[in-house]
Design goal:
heterodimer; A: about 475 residues; alpha+beta; PmbA/TldD fold; 2 domains; seven-stranded mixed sheet; six-stranded mixed sheet; 20 strands; about 20% helix; about 40% strand; B: about 475 residues; five-stranded mixed beta barrel; 24 strands
Chain lengths: ~475, ~475
């Protein structure tokens, strides 16, 4: 039967906003739940408690119209119980629940999962590499911005599109990370942020890719970005040049370099190298190295991501991973250190690069085309994957505004090409120069929840890159 | 308060329709490496996707607050957003895109997922690592099981009221062999390819134990295997790689939201255009591909999609001709194309979009031996380990764990690092032979990524063994 609406008092938008304001107070809420859990640990028990949360307005766009829009309020609390039987034998298990933000219910749920974890842990075999948290460090980072109200978003992003075929996603709101341990560590990270990750499509499906993000919305800046995109689209209007497979001098613009450098984020894991799962094994064995011009750092100093591990430790603010082309350091977590009898260098359990920065070089932006001479200007890359992981070979596609360059001038846009080349050639033997200017790209990923963090990279000029299809 | 009662007390002034989709999901991961327990974790998530239709605009609020006031606030917020967004709406949606379906779905299961204790599962995984280690050259062994219980209730103001109760199980075992600088890995079909609906009876311990030593032996065998040859030749693709081939070069390009341009900023568009439905020759005339969410035990079976559309089997491609796209009711009304019941969301916190569910290649009439006998010069490949395709789903490159050389109708030696690349339509046009039902296997994955905001969703794929001719084949870097 069709539903009949009943008549109840209407909540006004100010009351709706109160709900959004509510999450401003989540630091205390999180710490209260964490205290409740940590107060409940028994002899030989240790806890880590980690929070990930978002309060986000998403607005999905296609053809400068709204395809889907809505808000998501979602907070996950992960509780890990490490149990020590007194003989040095450790067992551990973890459970994540989402919070409903009603205090009594959330507290009851926290205690319920602690009971579940105890039941689970008691049945598990020992985990010889489990880590007991030791940290009692504390940190707090809260960045308040000036974000658009949800209701103002449609006009702000679509009123000035004037015939542009804009497609993409606007996401905005506050992101949260929290940590507490039974040893007294307490960390809180909250940041307001917005990102409009978009494409402008012109005739014949040629497109320009743009990112516009930050902590405070500035309408004029966004309109200027759109105008720049409009100009770029006109450069794509020329007839396509078909490029046959082969090796070409290539310039990877910063967004393309960002895409390529994404393949590096997990290979510095010491555990992965030890287990024969990382192409850096060749570098470790002294068989390969990168260009002396290439420097790669895990650098938290720009504050775009939280700096604490799930175990409550603070990551080093900067860790050089590649220095002048040589492997300077891998990421060694406490667990890996215990397993392979190494010293941990403060990396988190994932051993992933979380704040990647590629250092700039000496190539001025104005000289990029001249130095490229004749070859390919690649603005973006797409769908990268290892094609021979252990040899460091990667395949992917070119995407968006990519051009054939002839004698230092943009000649014609190209049809997208498949490429297949190794990290040791692209960042090693074929790397000719890096630009003086770096660009910072906020992480646009939102699987499960919206991501934090950013990648910072210059453009990269290559003597050659292998294009295959 | 149950969901229907909650809906009954919600006030939605001016709204044409309200829907509530409640999801409770509990996922458990147990993982052992090198015979040691490494991960025992679970995730439990409960929440509500509140959708509102007003001024032709469907907006949403995702909240974990199930209280009456929480849901009322969510509805108010969605109405407010619809009022402010409707002048830019992409289409004037109506309640027709939210059918008033009623009913129940329950995954088949004989043995409950929770029936095996954490100890029993860990003991099995630990022992499995031992069985994978058939040689000192085996450097790393892993065993993983991933169990998901998911329950969904859906009610709406136009009378929809259905429940779905899923029981899902994935497992995977892998051995990595090392000899000097040479490293090779072998698994049971690629990462978590063994993903099915059902209970613990799917985790057939005897069957798994019997294959573990083969996985280990093949990893060692690959260390000294000949490199995959380079050239244009015949390609026999086993079902665990066909899964990926179907997924990337049929499933994604047929998604109507890609064809309408919704995905152009992320996963990409499609070479398929609206005018192609009913006329495009997608591939060989022996090719029949179905969207089938009704297959018992396949990973993405269900009775209703997340907009409430009843799910039925439909042919996407018949005798090589493209007939139908993968689009739910919103995409169908926007495009004017025939679609399927595939508007799906990854959890309560994401809105439904066009997804694949189960996409299956129907079997042909050749047995395995007949297929091998038909190859004069070729390669057999199984178990995916590398995949990449362009944003229009034309140019792909895939790599596999394990290969066999075929010469003069006979399998000769094992080869390592087998890869192939091609372009979608010519590739499927070169489908020469299809295995019969005895060669068909069913796989799935929990992790098909798409959408803005991003969503990883479960899909299933069944395929027989296939023979393709004139394919560009190559090996690894040395």
């Amino acid at each position: 039967m069709p539903h009949q609406f009943v008549s109840l008092p209407i909540l006004r938008s100010s009351e709706v906003r109160n709900k959004i304001m509510r999450v401003q107070f989540q630091q205390n809420y999180f710490y209260e739940l964490a205290e409740k859990l940590c107060d409940s640990v028994g002899d030989g028990e240790h806890l880590t408690v980690n929070l990930r949360g978002e309060d986000t307005h998403y607005c999905r766009l296609n053809n400068a119209r709204i395809r889907q829009t809505g808000t998501v309020e979602d907070f996950d609390l992960d509780v890990r119980l490490i149990s020590d039987n007194g003989n040095g034998e450790l067992r551990q298990a973890s459970k994540t629940i989402n919070l409903c933000l009603e205090k009594n219910t959330d507290k009851e749920n926290c205690l319920r999962i602690l009971r579940d974890l105890r039941t689970d842990v008691n049945q598990l075999p020992t985990d010889p590499y489990a880590i007991i948290p030791t940290s009692n460090s504390k940190s707090e980072s809260v960045t308040e911005g000036n974000l658009l109200n949800s209701g103002d978003v449609p006009d702000a992003i679509l009123s000035d599109t004037n015939g542009l075929d804009l497609t993409g996603i606007y996401s905005s709101g506050r992101l949260f990370r929290g940590n507490a341990t039974s040893t007294g560590a307490r960390h809180w990270f909250a940041t307001d942020s917005f990102l409009i990750d978009y494409s402008l499509y012109g005739p014949e499906e040629r497109a320009y890719k743009g990112f516009h993000g930050g902590q405070s919305w500035e309408q004029a800046k966004f309109e200027a970005e759109l105008e720049r995109g409009r100009e770029q689209l006109s450069a794509l209007a020329k007839p396509i040049r078909k490029v046959v497979p082969g090796e070409y001098r290539t310039f990877l613009a910063p967004a393309a370099a960002m895409g390529f450098s994404g393949m590096l984020h997990y290979i510095f894991s010491e555990s992965s190298i030890q287990q024969g799962d990382s192409p850096l094994r060749l570098m470790r064995q002294g068989k390969k190295k990168f260009s002396p011009l290439f420097n790669f750092t895990d650098d938290y100093s720009n504050g775009t991501t939280s700096r604490f591990s799930p175990e409550g430790d603070l990551f080093p603010e900067k860790m050089a991973l590649v220095e002048n082309g040589e492997l300077k350091s891998t990421l060694i977590s406490k667990r890996t250190a215990k397993e392979y009898d190494l010293g941990s260098n403060g990396a988190g359990p994932s051993e992933a690069v979380q704040a990647p920065v590629i250092s700039p070089g000496a190539l001025k932006a104005a000289e990029v085309l001249k130095e490229l001479g004749t070859g390919l200007y690649v603005s973006n890359l797409h769908y990268l994957n290892w094609s021979d992981r252990m040899q460091g070979r990667v395949t992917g596609m070119t995407r968006y505004a990519c051009f054939w360059v002839e004698n230092g001038s943009l000649s014609a846009p190209i049809e997208n090409l498949r490429w297949d080349d190794t990290i040791y050639r692209v960042l090693g033997s074929e790397l000719e120069a890096l630009t003086t200017k770096t660009s910072m790209f906020p992480d646009p990923s939102s699987y499960g929840k919206r991501s934090i963090g950013a990648v910072s990279t210059p453009g990269i000029l290559l003597k050659s890159m292998a294009f295959t299809l | 308060m149950n969901l229907k009662d909650l809906l009954d007390v919600v006030s939605a002034p001016g709204a044409d329709w309200v829907g509530l989709r409640e999801v409770w999901e509990h996922a458990t991961t147990r993982y052992c490496r090198d015979g040691k327990s490494s991960k025992n974790s679970s995730e439990e998530s409960t929440g509500l996707m509140v959708e509102v239709l007003k001024n032709g605009c469907i907006t949403y609020t995702a909240t974990a607050d199930r209280s009456k006031s929480g849901v009322q606030q969510a509805v108010d917020q969605a109405i407010d957003l619809a009022e402010r967004s409707s002048k830019y709406r992409i289409h004037e949606f109506t309640v027709s895109e939210r059918p008033a379906s009623e009913g129940k779905y329950r995954s088949p299961r004989n043995v409950a997922l929770g029936s095996h204790s954490p100890k029993d599962i860990n003991d099995f995984l630990v022992n499995a690592c031992g069985k994978l280690k058939v040689s000192e050259k085996i450097h790393r062994t892993t065993g993983l099981i991933y169990l998901v219980e998911s329950k969904q209730n859906y009610v709406s103001t136009n009378g929809a009221n259905f429940e779905q109760d899923f029981s899902l199980l994935s497992y995977g075992f892998k051995a990595t062999a090392v000899d000097g600088t040479s490293v090779q890995s072998r698994s049971d079909g690629g990462f978590l390819a063994n993903s099915l609906q059902g209970g613990m009876e799917i985790f057939n311990q005897d069957k798994i134990e019997n294959m573990l030593s083969t996985i280990g032996e093949q990893a060692v065998e690959l260390l000294s295997a000949e490199e995959c040859p380079t050239g244009t030749m015949d390609l026999v693709v086993m079902p665990d790689q066909m899964m990926l081939q179907i997924h990337e070069s049929i499933g994604h390009p047929l998604e109507i939201d890609r064809i309408l341009g919704d995905e152009r900023n992320y996963a990409g568009s499609s070479f398929v255009q609206r005018k192609d439905f009913g006329s495009l020759t997608y591939g060989s005339p022996i090719m029949n591909v179905s969207f089938d969410p009704t297959v018992e035990n396949e990973y993405a079976s269900y009775s209703f999609d997340d907009n409430g559309t009843p799910a039925t089997k439909e042919y996407l491609i018949k005798e090589g001709k493209l007939l139908r796209g993968l689009g739910g009711l919103e995409s169908q009304t926007r495009s004017g194309l025939k679609g399927v019941a595939n508007a799906r969301a990854s959890l309560w916190n994401r809105p439904p979009i066009d997804r694949m569910a189960n996409i299956n290649l129907e079997p042909g009439d050749s047995n395995y031996d007949e297929i091998i006998s038909a190859v004069e010069n070729g390669v057999l490949m199984e178990s995916n380990n590398s995949w990449s395709i362009d944003d229009y789903r034309r140019k792909f490159q895939f790599g596999c764990e394990y290969g066999k050389r075929i010469k003069n109708g006979k399998i000769t030696n094992t080869i390592c690092n087998p890869n192939y690349r091609g372009i979608t339509i010519p590739f499927w046009t070169n489908l020469k032979m299809l295995g019969n039902a005895s060669t068909r296997k069913t796989y799935g994955t929990p992790y098909c990524g798409k959408g803005e905001p991003n969503q990883a969703i479960r899909v299933g794929h069944a395929s027989p063994v296939c023979l393709f001719t004139n394919i560009e084949i190559f090996g690894g870097s040395k």
